[in-house]
Amino acid sequence: MKLKSILCAAICSIAMANGALANDLLTVGDLAKPLKITHWLKGKEVTKLEPGKVYVLEFWATWCGPCIANMEHLSEAQEKYQDRNVKVIGLSDEPLQKTVKFLLGKYGKAQKPQNERIRYALATDPDRSVHKDYFDAAGLRGIPSVFIIGKDARIEWIGHPTDMDPVLEAVVEDRWDRNKLKDEIKAEQESQKALKDASKRLTNAREDERWEDMIVELEGLIALGHDGYIPTKLAIILSKVKDRKRGYVYANELIKRAWDDNHWLLAQVAYAVTHGISTGGGKDKYIVDENMRDYELGVTTLTRANEITNWESYSYLASLAKVEFKSKRLNQAVEHQAMAVKQLTALEPKIQVHELDGFREHIAKYQAQLEQYKLSIK
Questions:
Q1: Which residues constitute the domain of residue 174?
Q2: Is the CB of residue 24 less than 8 Å from the CB of residue 201?
Q3: CB-side exposure of 142: number of CA atoms within 13 Å?
Q4: I need a surface site. Which of 216, 246, 284, 350 has the fewest CB within 10 A?
């Protein structure tokens, strides 16, 4: 939870510029609001926060993989403190029918019913009243997120459920100092709030096709350490602003920075300059025009990414093969796609069958093109 002072200063300045002053955010030490929950699916309904009781309120969703994986952990916490006035509540903002359907489903290889896995209270909040009072009020952005509400109905802690165990134990045993980490938690909240606000501005700029404004927002997020936005910035320069010189100056700066050990960034640069980038689960596409692409640079960066990973990443191998195919390096494309297929096959049954089929289709395509080329030069 420790943050560098310079990062805190940057976060706080952005938060203040957007009206996110410290007293705007619900945080540790604040009085918890009543839980006006619409539907209770499991466990006894909580009509009020009782003095002397501790509440673990987790925000989750049926589509959230980490949330579902964490359910056993929450169940164990409820069982551990069952007789010590602790109430664990999982709260989704999805429709009742969707959550009921989830409960009737099964989980994992053992196909254990979800209803049996979840051994704590479960509820839905489709009108988002509790989400607004807690999740939104705290400036949170991602799930799963947990609020621990103490015996005096004040918020003791806010964070990820995998980090809650020592806090919960200390709260139950009356040895938790809620003020000790208050400033750090507040800084993290402001970071999330700043990111959430920037995401809204990004969305507005994208919808209005204000690409330079979008780049400015991305640069602010990158400066705060959110490197995941770097590929989007590069792809927007090439695909929307269509400034080739500016784009490739930036691309080469990134390659120089990443060359020694950052295979992820090298691969992202390659994707951007040879195709483009998709974000938002693939909804937002920044596809680079053919005349703006550089397949030679893509081969160079993906080759280096594979060297850093000892040629053991099927994803990087397949990406390299695709770019080699585009640049007419047919022998290399066949070789590297075959390596990717071999590595992917070794992962069965963890992988999706359609993914392996797709990789095999690509190698067949490259092989056919290579055979055709060999015939043409005879």
A1: 29-178
A2: no
A3: 11
A4: 350
